[in-house]
Amino acid sequence: MKFFGYLVRLLGCFLLLFGTWNPAGYSYVAWLSQDDGYRFSFKVVVGVLLFMVYVVYLRIAWLALGALGVGISAAILLTGYMTLRHYGVFDEQAPFWTGYLMLTIASVTLAAGLSWAHFKRRVLGTSQVIYPPP
Questions:
Q1: Cα–Cα distance list, 105 to 41, 42, 68, 73, 99 (Å)
Q2: Reduced to 3 DSSP states, what percent helix, strand and coil does the chain have, rounded to the nearest 5?
Q3: Crossing angle of helices 40-86 and 3-20, rounded to 10°
Q4: pLDDT tens across 29-77, in order?
Q5: pTM
Q6: Cβ of 111: how many Cβ atoms within 10 Å?
């Protein structure tokens, strides 16, 4: 997998997470909370589609990274964020940016999980095969 493939996966994760919820309020959760009445069935269909994409993305990331990999990648990103806050790059009193950064950390972790099998095959020459449960 080339770098462009990782960027496409990262963009897909950003769109999924930021489209579901973001601090600006332009998201599925904000749209769902609006009580316009006549579009409820369309909102449910979009919600089911989002749920399906989440299940697929999270399953792939969990199988590729495992609990330890997800924890380590999230810990690396969170400690980087805390280091930047410590040095004053991010304001400690600005919760608005904290929401965006947490979504970014989650997106990068999810994209790493989606790309890990491709990266592993390219570096080590081994493939990950998902076997169906017995």
A1: 32, 30, 16, 9, 10
A2: 75, 0, 25
A3: 110
A4: 998 888 777 688 888 999 999 999 999 999 988 888 888 988 898 888 8
A5: 0.79
A6: 22
